[in-house]
Amino acid sequence: MDKAKRKRLEARGWRVGTASDFLGLSAEEAALVEMKVSLSQALRARREARGLSQVALAKRLRSSQSRVAKMEAADQTVSIDLLLRGLVVLGATPRDIARVLGRDSGVAA
Amino acid sequence: MDKAKRKRLEARGWRVGTASDFLGLSAEEAALVEMKVSLSQALRARREARGLSQVALAKRLRSSQSRVAKMEAADQTVSIDLLLRGLVVLGATPRDIARVLGRDSGVAA
DNA sequence: TGCAGATATGTCAGAGGTGACATATACTGG
DNA sequence: CCAGTATATGTCACCTCTGACATATCTGCA
Fold this sequence. Notes:
- Two copies of one chain form a homodimer.
- By secondary structure, chain A is mainly alpha-helical.
- Chain A has helices at 3-11, 19-23, 27-49, 54-61, 65-72, 80-89, 94-102.
- The first copy, chain A, has one domain: lambda repressor-like DNA-binding domains (434 Repressor (Amino-terminal Domain)), CATH 1.10.260.40.
- In chain A, α3 runs parallel beside α6.
- The A-B interface holds A 28, 31-32, 34-35, 38, 79-81, 84-85, 88-89, 92-95, 97-102 and B 28, 31-32, 34-35, 38, 79-81, 84-85, 88-89, 92-95, 97-102.
């Protein structure tokens, strides 16, 4: 990782470091991050499947393009609540969301 | 509903009224409320299954008994994020949570 | 009855998430 | 090349959620 990127990440509250530092993530934090990543991936997939731009989705959510981008990036400043609202606006039912959470996000724990 | 209760509810942001007013709940709002109720029920079930008091759970969550009570009541002031944190602290995995969301909460939509 | 433990409800100051804006980067057709 | 469209990133004022406290209700027990 280059120094500029590392600095940006740290400025946003991420702890950046070696693999053992990452293991410092408690099991609880890891589970929450895993869910957040799964939901953000599902959001992007649903939006693209409908041929909507981030601007179009933002409009339906009464939000902004930049927030949608952060949602899909599972940004630190985005809550799981907001991701769920996004999915629901795209037509996802609670069962659809359950399916998303039941699947593996592909991100190593 | 007596007037005092109605006033308290309205002060907290609930729209109180006739059945047709309730039908004004959009499908999106309904889906989110359904998930919230499912999660709050699962939280209480898990806590009780472990023989923990609300005070004991609050301690693990670094929160307070009153907030835990509101979580289990699916109070308006409680986010889904917080419910998920509670479940995870009680040992629920993302898959456990998926199972909870996949089930019917028993609350009419 | 009175006490102790558990849960419910109301309130509020402070922490953290949100929408909006500015700006940057990337891709595409002309 | 460049204009147009889509997405990414940084920042900030505003508003919601949160923890904590006070208090109320309920149950079981001595």
